[in-house]
Structures are given as C-alpha cells and as structure tokens.
Write a structure and sequence with these properties.
This protein is an alpha/beta fold. The protein has one domain: Ureohydrolase domain (Arginase, Chain A), CATH 3.40.800. The protein has an eight-stranded parallel sheet, with helices on both faces. α7 runs parallel beside α8. The chain is globular and about 55 Å long.
C-alpha cells in the first residue's frame, strides 16, 4: 500500500501536519522510493536572505496539490512510496559546517534506494547533495534551470557559496560537463568569461532570450536525447521564472521563464533516469502572497510526476 496525501475532503487543507503535500512523515528513508527533505538555509546567499523559510512555505503551499495530475495523467502515488523526512539539522551560524552536515545526511539517505527531492534553501545546498549523489551514481548529467550559471570561482573569498556551485561540481568530477544543460540564463555578469569559460568545459547554455515566446518541448526533447540513460540530477532555481511569476527570491532577474514554459519543459524530460531533484531560492519574505512558493511547490510536483516508476492513467 503506497502512502497517500491527506485528502482535502477528509481534513481541511489549512489543518494537519505540515509535510509536503500532507504526506506521512518518516524517520528514515528505509522502504521509500522518494523522500522529501527540507534544507532551511540562507547563509550561502549574496544578496537578499530569507530562503531559510523556503521549505516551510513550499510545504504550506503544497497543501493545494492533489495526487492525480489531470493535465498529464501522472499518478505518482500509485507507483512510488513517498514520505517527508523533515529538515536537515543545519548549523545556521556556519556555512562550511552546514555543507558538511548536508553531505553526511545525504550519504546516509542514499544508502537506501531512494530519490531525494529537496526543498531549499539557497543554491549552495546543491553542491553537498551532488557530492553524495556522485558517491552512489558516479558523475551525473545535470539539468540546471536558473537565471544564473553559478560558476564563479569565489564570492568574498569563499569557495563554496550559492554562486560557485557548478564550478566546484565540475572541478570535483561530480557532473559530466558535456551533459550539463543550463536553461534560462540572463541578467548581467562581470565579464564575458563569466559564461564562456564554462562553455569551454563543455557546459550547454541556453540564454533566456533564445526561448522567449517559444515552446520548450523541443529543447526538452533534445536534452533528453543527449543525456540518454545516464543518471541525471535536476536542480531548479525559482529565479529562473520571471519576477512577475516569482518575486519571492533572493536574486531576481527580469526577462525570465513563464510558469507554463517551466511546466512544459519539465514534462518534456519524462523518461530521463532521474536520481535526485531540488527546488531552491524560494524566499518567502519577498512575496507575502505566497505565489512564489505556490509555483515552486507545483514545479516540485511536476518533477515528481516524471520520475522513473510513475504510472500514467
């Protein structure tokens, strides 16, 4: 019997345990196919803080999501055992210590046959997760949806922060460079090398203007073909969306994706060998309406709906 979200017809959506989609909570990943994990941190941010509140609000807004995906036919809770493991016990006064704690936590989680789906939290968290993922799966393909490439060498003399994640991942051989796809990049940089250097490593970059006013289904199909059956990690930064759709984030950039482009793109990745996902950079203090977290929670459901083993009705 698979775990099911609590129905809004059985218990009001504003009541009950605040887990992702009101799933059961669990103490360990044993027996799970998918584990939802919060990482309430913002000590790796460089501009606006507040992402420490992201996991809580993503869970809160997920209470509106029902278990059957009427648009695609996905029924994830009919084929996957899912539960919420709560939050990683970070050290909110120390970024290096928090990175170590995240790595240790995911090392233990990944002793089980489970796909971690992470609720962030600033983007720094993806680096320690990739360290654990690579221990289990080797270097992975990466689909990275973001306004920023996050390939800086350092920030304020620090080598590990939310803007350096994918340079470190490349240097540590956690990812396969020619199978790294960065979607939605825009904004400004300090020099052309901020972008061209990573392209020299093999990274594939799609700038936001290249996909304005277009369907992202063809791009998703192209990426899926190039990745093949290699284990793949999806990291989704909410600032990939235009601030009109997601103002509640630390480093907003105008000219981003629409929510329907994001949904279409993720749906197009169905069939990939996905071994982990995250949703990062939701900063509730900058969006009192909750719409940013609402978008983020629904995009997490989109990622859940394309995992291996999800039945379609």
């Amino acid at each position: 019997m698979y775990n099911q979200p609590v129905s809004g017809n059985d218990l009001p959506r504003f009541a009950g345990l605040q887990t992702f989609m009101r799933l059961p909570d669990a103490a360990t990943a044993e027996g799970l196919d998918v584990a939802f994990i919060g990482i309430p941190m913002d000590i790796g941010t460089s501009w606006r803080s507040g992402t420490r509140f992201g996991p809580k609000q993503l869970r809160q807004e997920s209470a509106m999501i029902r278990p059957y995906h009427i648009q695609t036919g996905a029924a994830p809770f009919e084929g996957l055992q899912c539960a919420d493991l709560g939050d990683v016990p970070i050290n909110t006064f120390s970024l290096p210590e928090t990175i170590r704690l995240i790595t240790e936590y995911y090392d233990e989680i990944l002793t089980h046959s489970v796909i971690p789906m992470t609720l962030g939290g600033d983007h720094t968290l993806t680096l320690p997760i990739l360290r654990s993922i690579a221990k289990k799966h080797g270097p992975v393909a990466l689909v990275h949806v973001d306004a920023h490439a996050d390939v800086s060498d350092e920030m304020f003399g620090v080598k590990e922060a939310h803007g350096t994640v994918f340079r470190r991942a490349y240097e540590e051989n956690l990812i396969t460079p020619e199978k790294v796809f960065q979607i939605g990049l825009r904004g400004t940089g300090y020099s052309a090398e901020d972008f061209t250097e990573a392209q020299g490593w093999g990274f594939n970059m799609t700038l936001a203007p290249e996909i304005w006013h277009t369907s992202l289904a063809p791009l998703a199909a192209e990426i899926k073909e190039k990745i093949g059956d290699q284990p793949c990690y999806i990291t989704y930064d909410i600032d990939s969306l235009d601030p009109a759709f997601a103002p509640g984030t630390g480093t907003p950039e105008i000219g981003g994706l629409t929510t329907w482009q994001a949904m279409e793109f993720l749906r197009g990745l169905r069939g990939l060998n996905i071994v982990g996902c995250d949703m990062v950079e939701v900063s509730p203090p900058y969006d009192p309406s909750g719409n940013t977290a609402l978008a983020g929670a629904n995009l997490i459901f989109e990622m859940l709906s394309i995992l291996p083993g999800v039945p379609y009705r």
